[in-house]
Amino acid sequence: MTFTIPMFVVVGLVAALILRQIPTRAVFLVAANLLNLGFILLFFGPFALAILIGIMVFGLALVRLGERYGYPSLPRPDGRVVWVHAASVGETNAVMPLVVQLAARGFHVVFTSTTVTSAALAARRLPVGAIHQFGPLDIASYVDRFLAHWRPELVIFVESEIWPTVISRLDRRGIPLAVVNARLSQRSFASWQRLKSFAGVVFSSI
């Protein structure tokens, strides 16, 4: 079985590199991921194809994959920056009035989410002064890269978004974190109850 990278993907990566829409390292990172996908297809056959279709439907656009590793696709605006994160469409709709108010008060908002559908919604609804990025994975080096670029003075998570690494890195940098419309399901609460010491460290930083 052979694997061929679609031409539109190749063209998109080259265009992104030429137009400097994402950093060079991020482009090569995407290319490396494509090669990894090729090996997955080669060894796992039709099962891998089903997995990859799911990734494409529910995952990221390939040319913006670098954002998940903390590589920005846009420059940091001058002035005060607030990072607002909402996981998906429901949370995006819920927090949008707050984003509008922050932008109206002169803050630059970096709005992050994790799904393609929420990114499309943000593109339609974000006010002037707010931009969208995909949120970094909860891994220290990716989070550090994201924070070093955007340098937010405040971070706002929506509902049940609890990322231990992000929380610890924010605490280390002295950046305040708020969780709006906070909630935990009974299942999540029970899970945190089994990790009381760890939960105490995480939640004490919010």
Q: How would you characterize this protein structure?
A:
By secondary structure, the protein is α/β, with parallel strands linked by helices. Helix content is 54%, strand content 12%. The chain contains eight helices and five strands; from the N terminus they run ααβαβαβαβαβαα. α3 links the parallel β1 and β2. α1 crosses α2, α3 runs parallel beside α4 and α5 packs across α6. The longest helix is centred in the N-terminal third of the chain and has 35 residues. The N and C termini lie far apart (50 Å). 27% of the residues are buried. The N terminus is likely disordered.
List the SSEs and their pairings.
Blueprint (H helix, E strand, L loop, with lengths): L6 H13 L4 H35 L22 E5 L3 H16 L3 E6 L2 H10 L4 E5 L5 H11 L3 E5 L5 H10 L3 E4 L5 H8 L2 H8 L3
Parallel strand pairs: 1-2, 1-4, 2-3, 4-5
- Indicate the overall shape: globular
Q: What's the total helix number?
A: 8
Q: Pairing-aware structural class of the strands and helices? A: alpha/beta
Count of individual beta strands: 5
Give the H and E element order.
HHEHEHEHEHEHH
Mean pLDDT: 77
**Rg, nearest Å:** 18 Å
Described by its quaternary structure, the protein is single chain
Q: Trace the largest sheet across and list its strands.
A: 3-2-1-4-5
Q: Which residues sit in consecutive blocks of at least 5 with pLDDT less than 50?
A: 1-5, 8-13, 15-22
Strand content: 5-15%
Terminal Cα span: 50 Å
> What fraction, in percent, of the residue positions are helical?
40-55%
Q: Sheet with the most strands? A: 5 strands, parallel
